Amino acid sequence: MGKYLVRRLLWVVVVLFFVSVITFLLAYAVPGDPAKSIAGVHATPEVLERIRDELGLNKPVYEQYWIYITNLLQGDMGFSYDTQRPVAQSIIERFPATVMIALFGILFELVIGIPVGMVSALKQYSFRDRLFTVLSLLGIAAPGFWLGMLFLYVFAYQLQIFPLGGYEGWAEPLYGVLPGLTLGVGGAAWYSRMLRSSMLDILNADYVRAARAKGLPERTVVWRHIMRNSWSPIITLLGLDFGWYLGGVLVIEVVFGVPGIGWQAWNAIQTQDMPMIMGTVLFAAVLVTVSNLVVDIAYTWLDPRVKYS
Amino acid sequence: MSGVLPPHDPYAAGEVASPAKATDVALGGGSTAPVGVDWSPDALLIEHRSTWKEVWIRFRRDKFAVGGLVVVILLILMAIFAPWLAPHDPTVQYDEGLTMQGMPVGSSSQFWLGTDTLGRDLLSRLIYGARVSLVIGVLANGFALVLGVIFGLTAGYFRGWIETLLMRMTDVMMAFPIYLFAIALVSVLKPSLWILVLVIGIVYWTPMTRVIHGEVLSIREKEFVDAARLTGCTNARLLYRHILPHLVAPVIVYISLGIATTILFESTLSYIGLGVQPPTPSWGQMISEGQPYYLSAPHLVIYPGLMIMITVLAFNLVGDGLRDAFDPQQRRR
Prior knowledge:
The structure holds two protein chains of two kinds.
Chain A: H1 2-29, H2 34-39, H3 45-55, H4 61-73, H5 87-122, H6 127-141, H7 144-158, H8 174-203, H9 206-213, H10 218-226, H11 231-256, H12 261-270, H13 274-302
Helix pairs in contact in A: 1-4, 1-13, 5-6, 5-8, 5-11, 6-8, 7-8, 7-11, 8-11, 9-10, 11-12, 11-13, 12-13
Chain B: H1 19-27, H2 41-47, H3 51-61, H4 63-80, H5 82-85, H6 122-158, H7 160-175, H8 178-189, H9 193-219, H10 223-230, H11 235-271, H12 283-290, H13 299-326
């Protein structure tokens, strides 16, 4: 276990190194002059030269990368061209809004996806199973931003249960429900399909038949014998969802006007604010990598048959 | 292409199998003729069905999949014949397409589904929108396929350090917030049809490479590959004649599912303004144009969204149906 952890952690470092190289090259390849972006179009050549000197823009690529990575390791992601504020600080400030809708998303995903998947598998080919199959196929096919707008129209505009977008901090969780539901519906569709097929594989296993044959109550068979062995794909999906949500959350935040890191990245893209774009991509990459690590460790803990390799 | 067989087929080594097995293959697929009655080559020839025919027979039984295929064909026809089908020019802004207050008009005999916020015919724009989605879906997957086949084949067949390098590269790509990265990349490179194809292709080459790598790993261990090598096949011939044909089935399945995902992604990019630029109509862009009006004129948002959903659903159904048809052992329904 210890050896496995060390190797796994080393791999995280390797991945993050490559991620930093790719984001750096992305910014490096951008047409345009960063000095001009900072100083504005009316800056004199002397000012531009001084900014280039300060940022090391006259140095060769590898030296620039070195400056970038040493700053990065000290938590310095540079300054936004747009607001002139530190990128790291802006991301930290905006992060709670993103976390709130991501948590609602995961909540809805589990609350909808798990019961639907269980019913579909336990009552295979029943009316409910077929209905859920059709609904989840539709849920997978519907674009998230469009679904979000439909929810806004029905639940916020017509029924007036939820606010019409926006964000008022964690004290007002109602603002997170509809964005979370939008994220969760798509996720729940995948979840229920995965859970259904992994449960169907297990339903006919010998040990399940044995459990039934010795007269265990159905509840015990389902929860202790079937479900325990169906968790693995669910856990994997849960880990991957962090990545999906951080990519998908951008457009959901735009639809609902939630000022999270996705919304911020979206504004940065509009103004070609490279430090902010790089910072957000990198930040999201760290989250994805760490959640993958957690999933891998949880996996071996949940299912001891998985070897640490 | 007579030697083409799906992977995982128990008779994958059919060319060299015993006569008993050959009969099983020939009599499979619901024939009622008793096994082993007539061993003459003629009898086998009469019963012989090509793999593709078998796949088609299994595919045809799946009502969802056939429905999906019909919709896909209709969408392709709609995209090709858009200029003849559309009642109006999708980019013309009609004076009578807006009310006195500048609002879009509802459905009428002139504009069957009403007009959009600039007084353009909604139905015509929906029909033309299929072009962007399908072209990007097909081209981006084609690009990802080329990369995936080259990298997957190389990694799976030659193994060694090149496999380690390529597969570790896909690991890094998988750990990357790839959608965010793609969005940043498109915005930096300035959106156009070809940039979208390029970037989406770059995003999708990883899963494609992994699928092909996995298939090649299992195929290269089969006896017929050893046999071919023993007869002195060159690497190139072995790859082209003996391994590549076995990749056709998983690739077709993967592409049809991939097109669905790509269309969804393209619509998201269009929605945030990073898709094909106006006036070329695309469904995602139509939704974002209709957004400011969606409380008063929700149909501007609902129709293009429905088009995206139907298209994605149809490709998914075809992909699922093909997977089951190619691989009845792994059927999960």
